[in-house]
Design goal:
Blueprint lengths: L11 H29 L3 H34 L6 H23 L1
Helix pairs in contact: 1-2, 1-3, 2-3
Length: about 110
């Protein structure tokens, strides 16, 4: 059972989780726009790459919920917390979107 107590005055875990969530949602919206544009220009490679970015963004959001709960448990036990997983997934999503944009530009 997770203790719902506020761990610090700045609510650091909440702010961090919300920031990653906003970034992942922006990545998802951009991927959807890229897919629409790629379908309009009949670029299958760009659709595939943007779909990968969409999946990575969705995985980031799903993983954030688990990481947030884990962070609260770690704070309760006095252990440090880290957010490397969301950073890697979001970075991979943004890199995939960049590749999709390059494919669309070169087409």
């Amino acid at each position: 059972m997770v203790n719902d107590q506020v761990w610090d005055a700045g609510l650091q875990p909440e702010r961090t989780a919300l920031a990653w969530q906003r970034t992942a949602l922006a990545s998802i919206v951009t991927a959807l726009g890229t897919i629409r544009l790629a379908l309009h220009h009949s670029s299958i490679a760009a659709v595939v790459i943007a779909s990968l970015a969409l999946a990575l963004g969705a995985a980031t959001i799903i993983g954030l919920r688990v990481r947030y709960r884990r962070s609260i448990r770690r704070l309760a036990s006095g252990r440090p917390i880290g957010l490397l997983g969301p950073a890697l997934l979001t970075s991979a999503s943004i890199a995939a979107l960049g590749c999709a944009a390059i494919v669309l530009l070169l087409r």
